[in-house]
Amino acid sequence: MEINVQYVKMEASEALDTYLTKKLNKLARQYDWLIRAEVFFKKGQDKTGMDCICEIELSAPGPRIFASSTNTYYESALKETIRDLKRQLEKRHSLFTAK
Which domains are present in the chain? Predict the structure, then answer.
């Protein structure tokens, strides 16, 4: 699976890239029909401190798979986004195997 990462209003982080790659490769091993992942890490402007945004769009057969999360830390936002994607992928996988 091809992974494209973009950082918006923040500097790139090698540690975050490594963590992201590890998590997405795990998904790619589970769901071999995934083609590409577009990942955006953004710095929001929330006054409560929940200003770390992670958005991931997966390219796969059928409608797009998208999830977004906001949290205090980018790692937590990424983890939450991956969990949401996994839920969507499980539903999509059950549709593929039901046919």
Answer: 2-98 (3.30.160.100)
Q: Residue 40 in contact with residue 20, Cβ under 8 Å?
A: no
**Block residue for tokens 């589970």:** 30
Residues 6+ apart with CB under 8 A from 36: 1, 2, 3, 4, 58, 59
pTM over 0.85: yes
User: 9-59: per-residue pLDDT in tens?
Assistant: 899 999 999 999 999 999 999 998 899 999 999 998 877 778 899 999 999
Task: Using DSSP, state whether 39 is helix, strand or coil.
Answer: strand
Q: What pLDDT, on the 0 to 100 scale, is given for residue 48?
A: 78
End-to-end CA distance of the chain: 25
